[in-house]
Amino acid sequence: MRISQLAAATGVPVATIKYYRREKLLHDGVLTAATQAHYDDSHVRRLKLIRALIGTAGLSVAATRELLQGLENPPEPGHDLLGLAHRAVTRPAADGVDLAPAQELLGRWGWGEQACDRNSQAALVEALDGLSSAGFELPDGMLDRYARAMRDVAEADVESVPTDSPEAAMRYVVLGTVLVEPVLLAMRRLAQQSASFERFGAATLGQGAGPV
Amino acid sequence: MRISQLAAATGVPVATIKYYRREKLLHDGVLTAATQAHYDDSHVRRLKLIRALIGTAGLSVAATRELLQGLENPPEPGHDLLGLAHRAVTRPAADGVDLAPAQELLGRWGWGEQACDRNSQAALVEALDGLSSAGFELPDGMLDRYARAMRDVAEADVESVPTDSPEAAMRYVVLGTVLVEPVLLAMRRLAQQSASFERFGAATLGQGAGPV
């Protein structure tokens, strides 16, 4: 198909397709004339994936490029797939960040700090620092309750990784890590509204009168 | 204290403090001379909160302003605190978005769709659309497992809302909604690494050889 047909098939404007091609997110089509290229289903699939990563998951162009390169050259099965996905979506730990608070929690939860990468530990430390900078204190035991729930999520995630091919595993880990996050956060808000409604009753939310 | 001392006390540069004042995020100090104002602890607390909301939680200036106005004029207890917090951090639902997929799930989970606001339902629909646009299919039953875990999180959240004053409830709901999200996501990644390590063994993550 031509670029205009690719745009129609994916809903991505021609100018955006050209931008993704310049940024090396989308592979070139086959040239059929000096100014015309032919695109196929692989471009449709790739464009939908790019839109999901940049649009839905909110990744930068650079992080998206790194992930797509990972998809094209997947590490061996049993290798560092999860690490690659997490590195692309986790900011590098700042120099000199103190990981001790994260390591104490990992020890308390029995999560094995040797299994957990520095950047993700730093992300937890920073997120907890954000709470205390705002003067926000979680009640006793809250962090442990959160940890149990997120462990349930993670067990489900890890059990579901397909093992039939490295490409399938890679794809699942990358997308399952990034794209499921907005699903979980939307679920938390809906569950809060539902739990709050059951506890406090009152009118519907979002119309000026509601629970809490 | 003077503005330079306020900067020293909070780690926020003077130019940034002036910017927050112009944007009406930070209340004025008391003028002690034509070009000098006096600041107090209320400015220190407010600045730390602004940094947490903009820096840690990644809110826009406009969303932060709306939340801070909510803190200054808290709705009556039992009123729409949760809705105010969620509106500030949830994009408005697009016109004509079909909420049926969210409502079917809310019904299946017994979450009571009348308790749940349109924008949060739309956020779930969009997040699920992001998965299917990327051609990513969750295995059977995954969404229900996620829902059970996020319900556990939300029950803990709602039980912890302090009821001693509207200000305290508002503050808890706003910060607990926004600032806890990066904590939960960091926990999920660490729990994935831990669960993956237990299942697949192998070397540490982030060093080129690891689980999955």
Describe the structure.
The structure is a homodimer of 212-residue chains. Chain A has 212 residues and is mostly helical. In chain A, 62% of the residues lie in helices and 3% in strands. Chain A has 10 helices and 2 strands, in the order ααββαααααααα. Chain A has a two-stranded antiparallel sheet. In chain A, β1 and β2 form a beta hairpin. The longest helix of chain A is centred in the last third of the chain and has 21 residues. The radius of gyration of chain A is 22 Å and the shape is elongated. The first copy, chain A, starts with a helix and ends in a 12-residue tail after the last helix.
Topology (elements, then pairings):
Two copies of one chain form a homodimer.
Chain A: H1 3-10, H2 14-22, E1 30-33, E2 36-38, H3 41-56, H4 61-72, H5 81-89, H6 100-109, H7 118-133, H8 142-159, H9 166-178, H10 180-200
Antiparallel strand pairs in A: 1-2
Summarize the structure.
Two copies of one chain form a homodimer. The first copy, chain A, is mainly α and 212 residues long.
Estimate percent helicity of chain A.
55-70%
Largest interface, with counts of residues having CB < 8 Å to the other chain, equals: A-B, 102 and 102 residues
Secondary-structure element order of chain A, N to C = HHEEHHHHHHHH
Count of strand segments of chain A: 2
- Alpha carbon gap, first and last residue of chain A: 54 Å
Total count of helical runs of at least 4 residues of chain A: 10
- pLDDT < 50 runs, ≥5 residues of chain A: 203-212
Question: What's the arrangement of strands in the largest beta sheet of chain A?
Answer: 1-2
Radius of gyration of chain A: 22 Å
Shape of chain A: elongated
- Round the mean pLDDT of chain A to the nearest integer and report it: 83
Largest sheet of chain A: 2 strands, antiparallel
Structural class of chain A: mainly alpha
Strand content of chain A: under 5%
Oligomer: homodimer
